[in-house]
Specification:
Low-confidence stretches: none
Number of strands: 6
Radius of gyration: 20 Å
Shape: elongated
Order of helices and strands: EHHEEEEHEHH
Mean pLDDT: 79
Strand content: 5-15%
Largest sheet: 2 strands, antiparallel
Number of helices: 5
Strand order of the largest sheet: 1-6
Helix content: 40-55%
Distance between the termini: 33 Å
Oligomer: single chain
């Protein structure tokens, strides 16, 4: 998934950007993109991927730990089985390095991450990155304004 920046339609941000010269914009834009990506990944890991796909059953007649058993998958959300997908989410997938950074790639390198996100073959779509980005998108404007304010002050 790629998080991109477009400042069309945000007059106050455009006014702040016009005050800065291009080299001064590089660092705040990079910081904003990293914070936005982190917010998306936190939301995906904590809200969009449900915990508890594999749970421990009741103890046996002689005590001890119960056996692990799988619960039924959620019909529309991704249910974590081992936690591997949640641990594989990262922002270290690439970003725009040509001048002013305009995007950062976030996601997972696991093959089944793409299968769940897009719903391929016999597997239903259980997107976790797109809903996470939509959930935290209202915060992006404030994050960018805060990073620009640091440079302007």
């Amino acid at each position: 998934m790629r998080i991109s920046v477009s400042i069309r339609g945000i007059p106050e941000l455009r006014a702040q950007l016009q005050k800065l010269q291009a080299p001064k914009l590089h660092r705040p834009m990079r910081e904003f993109l990293l914070k936005a990506a982190h917010a998306v990944l936190v939301n995906a890991a904590e809200t969009q991927i449900l915990r508890g796909g594999r749970v421990r059953g009741p103890a046996g007649p002689r005590g001890g730990k119960g056996k692990l058993r799988d619960t039924k998958p959620h019909p529309s959300k991704l249910t974590s089985r081992s936690g591997e997908l949640r641990r594989s989410l990262s922002v270290n997938r690439g970003s725009d390095r040509s001048g002013l950074p305009r995007y950062i790639d976030v996601g997972s390198d696991l093959v089944y991450a793409r299968v769940h996100e897009l719903g391929l073959g016999r597997f239903p779509r259980r997107a976790f990155l797109v809903p996470a980005a939509e959930a935290v998108a209202p915060k992006f404007r404030g994050l960018l304004a805060a990073e620009l304010a640091k440079v302007l002050s």
